[in-house]
Design goal:
It is an enzyme of class 1 (oxidoreductase). This is Kynurenine 3-monooxygenase. It catalyses: L-kynurenine + NADPH + O2 + H(+) = 3-hydroxy-L-kynurenine + NADP(+) + H2O. Keywords: FAD, Flavoprotein, Membrane, Monooxygenase, NADP, Oxidoreductase, Pyridine nucleotide biosynthesis, Transmembrane, Transmembrane helix. The protein is built from 16 helices and 19 strands. The protein has helices at 17-28, 42-45, 59-67, 71-76, 111-123, 173-182, 242-247, 251-261, 263-266, 272-278, 306-309, 318-335, 340-370, 376-391, 399-404, 413-450; strands at residues 10-13, 33-37, 54-57, 79-81, 83-86, 94-97, 106-110, 128-132, 136-140, 150-153, 158-160, 163-166, 185-200, 213-219, 222-228, 234-241, 282-290, 293-295, 300-303. The strands form four sheets. Strands 6-5-14-15-16-13-17 form a seven-stranded mixed β-sheet. A six-stranded mixed β-sheet has the order 8-2-1-12-19-18, sandwiched between helices. It is globular and about 85 Å long. It binds flavin-adenine dinucleotide. Flavin-adenine dinucleotide binds at residues 13-19, 36-39, 52, 55-56, 135-136, 167-169, 173, 195, 237, 282, 305-307, 313, 316-320, 322.
Length: 451
């Protein structure tokens, strides 16, 4: 274990996925950590409506869970999805494996279940205290001569804190609180698309669709996906421009639209119009904020997870990426001998290029999922990529594999893909030249025999 002893009081704001994992990692270092969560304990109250019910966990998230001994537990609660099942507008469906050998999977897991497992482990970790129903409204970094950092809580109470780790999500109050006086900059880009969740219940006690795939209905400006749940239902998420959602303002319109655009799915959702009316439309935001770390006389504050860099969900990486942040903070603490003033800037330095890269790749993947996956050209290209992966194992690896099935830093992926593509283009051109040279030689031989 790392340095123990008094040290600064560590506050983690938010007991979501990042906050609860971070608390475990810090508790294991022998630190005293208090986690402040505005909601009541979700293990007692159940999942919040309107937040994603399940999420896709992949290599990066699993590596982080492995570090706290929760990998196997998570996999037991999850369902492997080995590829995409594409439901084109014209009907039918086709399966596109994620990896060349078809064996690699991303894992559909209940957000509430994963959060509960992390909270149980955090609670059982010596040094960790969980405080539910405690909304943090701001932080005072103690620059007024007192030299004492304080956390400001709703209702006016304050609590001493020398290190504040803000994991309070995409609409972070901590990020807002830090901006006016600290020179923090935060940009939020909202997509015109929102999302709404719908449920495909089990049919005759079994899954109504293949549970071994992530289902996609690509429809150009709209896209629906469905991930399996262990209770044999599927959670569908419809991504659509917000004003389109608003236009479906009567049950008959909802049913009519789904029958026309998603006939196979519509037939599997008996309570479609009720589900549609009941579930809210969520927003999709990319957060770009800088810096993530600010040190005052009495406290050092850092943002992580969605609070620092929320991304759109089209690569299924937000939580995976937030977990990587936690591991990086832990690593930086090890490398600096537990010196927060050096560890947190080091964490920011190492992570920003990576989170910028996945933010761009996630936006790009939206176009791929809602449009390209349906095209025969795309399917041919993916098949060719898989053939190359089999012929050049480890040397040609697709972007999807590098993001989902490796822990290669995100920032290295675009350059690696460009390099692979250049080599491929060169090989194709060389192949083309060889073919051309062969044809030329054959033609010369033919004319030589004729003359
Ligand atoms: P959150 O999980 O949002 O947790 C923040 C916590 O802070 C909450 O518990 C909140 O109540 C608490 N809080 C907020 N304000 C305060 C306050 N003032 N005081 C105290 N507590 C506070 N990621 C994936 O990896 N794979 C996926 O498949 C995937 N699918 C997604 C689908 C959708 C539709 C969406 C919207 C997101 C998806 N994500 C996915 C992203 C993922 O949900 C987030 O990246 C992840 O939840 C970030 O974790 P976090 O701990 O930073 O924030």
């Amino acid at each position: 274990a790392e340095p123990t002893g008094p040290g600064p009081r560590v506050a983690v704001v938010g007991a979501g996925l990042a906050g609860s994992l971070l608390a475990i990692l810090l508790g294991r270092r022998g630190l005293a950590v208090t986690v402040y969560e505005r909601r009541p304990d979700p293990r007692a109250t159940g999942a919040e409506r309107g937040r994603s019910i399940n999420l896709a966990l992949s290599a990066r998230g699993l590596a982080a869970l492995d570090a706290v001994g929760l990998r196997e537990l998570a996999l037991e609660q999850a369902l492997p999805m080995r590829g995409r099942m594409v439901h084109p507008a014209g009907g039918g469906h086709n399966f596109q494996p994620y990896s060349a050998g078809g064996e690699r999977a991303i894992h559909s897991i209940s957000r509430a279940g994963l959060n509960a497992a992390l909270l149980d482990t955090a609670e059982a970790t010596p040094g960790v205290t969980l405080r539910f129903g405690a909304r943090v409204t701001g932080v005072d970094t103690g620059d007024d001569g007192t030299g004492a950092g304080r956390l400001l809580l709703e209702g006016g109470a304050t609590e001493l804190a020398g290190v504040v780790l803000a994991c309070d999500g995409a609409y972070s109050a901590m990020r807002r609180a830090l901006r006016p006086d600290g020179g923090f900059e935060a940009g939020q880009d909202f997509l015109e698309h929102g999302y709404k969740e719908l449920t495909i219940p089990p049919r005759d006690g079994d899954f109504a669709l293949d549970p071994g795939a992530l289902h996609i209905w690509p429809r150009g400006t709209a896209m629906m996906i469905a991930l399996p749940n262990v209770d044999r239902s599927f959670t569908c998420t419809l991504f659509w421009p917000k004003e389109e959602f608003e236009a479906l303002d009567a049950p008959a319109r909802v049913r009519g639209h789904f029958r026309a655009a998603y006939p196979d799915a519509a037939a599997l959702i008996p309570d479609l119009a009720e589900d549609f009316a009941r579930n809210p439309v969520g927003s999709l935001v990319t957060v770009r904020s800088r810096p993530w770390v600010r040190e005052g006389d009495g406290a050092v504050v850092a943002l992580l997870g969605d609070a620092a860099h929320a991304i759109v969900p089209f690569f299924g990486q937000g939580a995976n990426c937030a977990f990587e942040d936690c591991l990086e903070i832990d690593r930086c603490l090890t490398e600096t001998g537990g010196d927060w003033s050096r560890a947190l800037p080091m964490y920011q330095e190492r992570r920003t290029a990576n989170t910028d890269a996945i933010a761009e790749m996630a936006l790009d993947n939206f176009v791929e999922m809602r449009d390209r996956v349906a095209s025969p050209v795309y399917r041919a290209r993916t098949a060719a990529q898989h053939a190359l992966e089999r012929r050049l194992p480890g040397r040609y690896v697709s972007r999807y594999e590098l993001v989902s099935f490796s822990t290669l830093p995100y920032a290295e992926i675009p350059a690696r893909i460009r390099r692979q593509n250049r080599i491929l283009a060169g090989a194709a051109a060389a192949g083309g030249l060889l073919v051309a040279a062969g044809l030329l030689a054959a033609r010369q031989r033919r004319s030589a025999t004729r003359s």
